[in-house]
Design goal:
Shape of chain B: globular
Number of strands of chain B: 2
Radius of gyration of chain A: 28 Å
Strand order of the largest sheet of chain A: 1-2-3
Oligomer: heterodimer
Order of helices and strands of chain B: EHHHHHE
Helix content of chain A: 55-70%
Shape of chain A: elongated
Order of helices and strands of chain A: HHHEEEH
Helix content of chain B: 40-55%
Largest interface: A-B, 7 and 14 residues
Number of domains of chain A: 3
Number of helices of chain B: 5
Distance between the termini of chain B: 10 Å
Strand content of chain A: 5-15%
Strand content of chain B: 5-15%
């Protein structure tokens, strides 16, 4: 078996196993992954045993280790920058949207409130207004107005919170990646 | 690190593919070694020398860089 045939077989088996595992998860059948994953590994190992040429020699291994190390360096640096930038949306005041609330006294003596959201880091004004809503009678707000009142600030910051969450996720992945690298580094450091 | 693999191969009318198969590496590795782009391990160096029936010194020659000993592993 040639290298390309082996790689094609591996790819097909991996796709089939992934599809079966995905389908079984959706169907709630957890027995299939237990069978499909070891079966896939056995098929791939059987294919590998049929390969009659050298798949990976010392040069290939050195290239892979260097490529892996460079990938780790680039991903860690770029990921750290991305994580900090994304998380700064949560903790940085200039990046957060400006939300203002103004109380008005109506002619009938009731109070109304206008909540307005402006673009982050801008001076509140008509040009920088993103959206606004008015609660006509603050002391007798209906359900819809109450919900608007409750969710307005939350929605305003939702985009920033999502970015912060993405930043934290990237940060956690980087920590796991570095911890795994450190564990393998210590293992090989003891081995050699 | 300079080497005489191409010359030794030509003397024995051996192709890169044949040498690669004998030493258990890919043809790309032999090509890279011949072009001095890849410095083989000591083990592979000895295997290549043994295939040609010569000493490792007859195949590989260590040359120090102008700036001093090379630290790059190829």
């Amino acid at each position: 078996m040639k290298r390309l045939t082996y790689l094609t077989c591996t790819l097909i088996v991996a796709c089939m196993v992934a599809a079966m595992v995905g389908w079984s998860m959706a169907a709630g059948n957890f027995l299939i992954p237990v069978i499909a994953i070891p079966l896939g590994i056995i098929v791939i190992l059987a294919c590998r045993a049929q390969v009659d040429i050298v798949i990976a020699d010392e040069r290939e291994k050195r290239i892979r280790s260097k490529a892996a190390l460079r990938t780790l360096e680039v991903v860690v640096i770029a990921g750290a920058i991305a994580a900090i930038i994304l998380y700064s949306y949560v903790v940085s005041v200039p990046l957060a949207p400006i939300i203002t609330g103004k109380l008005f006294l109506n002619d009938d003596g009731t109070q109304s409130m206008t909540i307005a959201e402006y673009k982050p880091g801008s001076v509140p004004g008509p040009q920088t207004l993103v959206r606004s809503t008015t609660i006509r009678n603050l002391n007798a707000m209906n359900e819809s107005e109450a919900m608007t009142y409750c969710t307005y600030v939350r929605e305003g910051f939702l985009e920033n919170e999502n970015r912060g969450l993405a930043g934290m996720t990237i940060g956690c992945i980087l920590v796991i990646l570095l911890a795994t690298f450190g564990a393998f580094y210590l293992y090989y450091d003891r081995k050699y | 690190m300079k080497n005489r693999i191409r010359v030794l191969r030509a003397e024995r009318e051996m192709t890169q593919e044949q040498l690669a198969e004998l030493v258990g590496v890919t043809r790309n590795t032999i090509i890279s070694i011949e072009k001095d782009k890849y410095c083989p391990s000591l083990k592979l160096g000895y295997r290549i020398a043994r295939i040609f029936g010569v000493g490792i010194d007859d195949v590989f020659t260590y040359e120090e860089d102008k700036d001093g000993p090379s630290t790059d592993d190829g």
